[in-house]
Write a structure and sequence with these properties.
Elements lengths: L1 H31 L16 H8 L5 E7 L10 H16 L3 E6 L5 H10 L4 E7 L2 E7 L1 E7 L2 E5 L8 H13 L5 E5 L12 H7 L4 E5 L11 E7 L6 H12 L3 E5 L3 E4 L4 E4 L5 H7 L1 E3 L2 E5 L2 E8 L2 E14 L15 E5 L4 E3 L8 E7 L4 E5 L21 E8 L38 E6 L14 H15 L5 H5 L12 H44 L1
Parallel strand pairs: 1-2, 7-8, 7-9, 9-10, 10-22
Antiparallel strand pairs: 1-5, 3-4, 5-6, 11-12, 13-18, 14-20, 15-16, 16-17, 19-21, 21-22
């Protein structure tokens, strides 16, 4: 009996040790290999592949200090746990290169003073306790530290944009340089301090922005990582040469061009001979003097007497998810964007040999175009001519080695100014480059979609612009995170015949189903009744 007890006790101890060992192995594996199921459509509770690449590329420890008060209002009680869960995922993918510390600054005057210098303020929140409204001051900030560099998130009140904010801060502290984005100016383009003020503000989170005036500058500096050319009204041959040579030097250029001149007040339009038409056609993209209309469109507001009316407007083309290129990271996660009074593009195939061509986005299959005579009235019932309805290319990306537009031609001379003894000698003429290094070029048949004059509620426009800037300069480090912000889910455009069928089903479908259910129930009851009678007869 005693031997049996010893055997049972030994088995119990062995089983306990074995179970503990199994649990330890599972814990070690789960720590090293993060795994959880996220069933949301855009995987909003899982960090993106872009963040994982950033974390995997860390070459030294980045410190994250989370300054959260322990006593938070009831509606923020789960926020700390959500932040901890996300930071645990960050720590897992960083593989030891992320040090995370949670600190409660309450009742520590020295810590509170240090936070004021860091730029993390107390947040005043409204709290309702015992049927009374009160105020409480809490800390909800975060600091990202790397060597002597530091970046701060002053207040985190939800997790909607937390991944983008944190990953961008990590990128900023580990970056050794700030790239410069140039905006061509002085030729009637939108001004970065006026019409492009919001765009400039968004870019300045990660880039330095400056105007490039080719009338004054001898060349476009090589320090400019990307050049935005937003529909200049006139360019001299010398200025086009400078843009060409910037591209040949490996610079990235984004052309947002309006081939049709608009008068938005009178809703009038005329074809415009853009000074860049020949240059872009040489690179492989032809701009058409047309305006596209689309049944997939956004609402536009117009003044009618004392009232403002909002109506679906076919000239405000709504690019939906299915019409974005699925193989380009700048657009493959976008939900939608809206182009006002935009023109279609055409790929010149014999000019793009050796280049990688991506049709970034198109209009829908239910789109058509106006040319020569433009009728832009929102009251008009627009109907396309037979055979006109088709997809049209609205944005293109070209990558590879480009041939100079001026190869084999005489180099345009700069305008010589009269020399005075007080002026320094002119700089030496840069060497002509007939072919570019590997580079990228973007063309969109519209420049109005990024300006202040266009409604700011179209988030897809802002996200697209930031994405393409990132794509041509730093790659896709932030693209996947930012694109997930846009959650517009437009209804599918259906034909009139399909609408009639759906209406018929809605009206009669329920009645038909109810009738079929009643007939089925009647049949089953009758069958049971007949079966019962038959069994009774058999028994008798």
């Amino acid at each position: 009996m005693k031997l049996k007890k010893v055997r049972y006790g030994t088995n119990y101890i062995l089983m306990t040790v074995l179970l503990a060992a199994i649990l330890a192995v599972i814990n070690i594996l789960s720590y090293r290999h993060f795994l959880r199921a996220d069933l949301t459509d855009n995987r909003q509770y899982t960090i993106t592949e872009s963040t994982r690449k950033v974390l995997a590329g860390l070459d030294d420890v980045v410190n994250i200090k989370v300054y959260f008060s322990r006593k938070l209002p009831p509606y923020l009680t789960t926020l700390t746990d959500q932040i901890k869960d996300l930071l645990d995922e960050y720590r897992t993918y960083a593989r030891g290169k992320l040090a995370i510390e949670f600190i409660d600054p309450a009742n520590d005057p020295a810590m509170e003073q240090r936070l004021r210098f860091l730029g993390i303020p107390q947040v005043r929140l409204n709290v309702i306790e015992r049927d009374q409204a009160q105020f409480t001051n809490v800390y909800l900030g975060m600091a990202v530290l790397y060597g002597d560099n530091k970046e701060v998130i002053p207040a985190i009140t939800d997790t909607n944009n937390f991944e983008y904010d944190l990953t961008s801060k990590i990128l900023q502290v580990i970056s050794t340089e700030v790239k410069t984005i140039g905006f061509l100016s002085g030729h009637g383009e939108p001004d970065i301090n006026k019409e492009l003020k919001n765009i400039q503000g968004l870019l300045q989170e990660h880039y330095s922005c400056r105007s490039i005036d080719t009338k004054k500058d001898k060349n476009i500096p090589a320090t400019v990582a990307a050049l935005v050319v937003a529909s200049p009204k006139e360019l001299s041959e010398r200025e086009k040469f400078l843009i060409d040579q910037y591209l040949m030097s490996g610079g990235r250029v984004l052309f947002f061009i309006d081939p049709v001149a608009m008068d938005e007040r009178r809703l009038a339009a005329t074809p415009l001979a853009s000074p860049l038409l020949e240059l872009l056609a040489h690179y492989g993209v032809k701009l058409k003097n047309e305006l596209v209309l689309d049944r997939s469109n956004a609402n536009a507001s117009f003044q009618s007497g004392y009232y403002t009316i909002s109506v679906p407007y076919p000239f405000w083309i709504k690019i939906i998810r299915d019409n974005f290129a699925q193989d380009n990271p700048a657009v493959n996660q976008l939900e939608s964007m809206v182009l006002p009074w935009a023109s279609p593009l055409e790929i010149v195939r014999d000019k793009t040999a050796g280049l990688r061509v991506t049709e970034l986005f198109k209009s829908s299959k239910d789109s058509w175009a106006q040319k020569e005579v433009f009728d832009l009235s929102p009251k008009e019932e627009y109907s396309p001519a037979p055979g006109e309805m088709k997809e049209r290319i609205m944005g293109v990306a070209l990558s590879g080695k480009f041939k100079s537009f001026y190869a084999g031609k005489k180099v345009p001379a700069a305008d010589e100014e009269k020399k005075t003894p007080a002026q320094p000698p002119q700089q030496k003429e840069p060497l002509f480059k007939p072919e570019s290094a590997e580079t990228k070029l973007i063309v969109v048949g519209n420049s109005r979609f990024i300006t202040e004059n266009f409604p700011a509620e179209f988030d897809g426009n802002r996200i697209f612009f930031q994405n393409v800037i990132d794509w041509v300069t730093i790659g896709d480090a932030l693209i996947g995170i930012r694109s997930r912000e846009s959650t517009d889910r437009p209804l599918m455009v259906v034909s009139d015949r399909a609408k009639a069928a759906i209406r018929f089903i809605n009206i009669l479908g329920v009645a038909i189903l109810a009738g079929l259910f009643g007939l089925g129930s009647f049949y089953l009851r009758r069958r049971r009744k007949m079966t019962g009678i038959k069994e009774l007869i058999d028994v008798q």
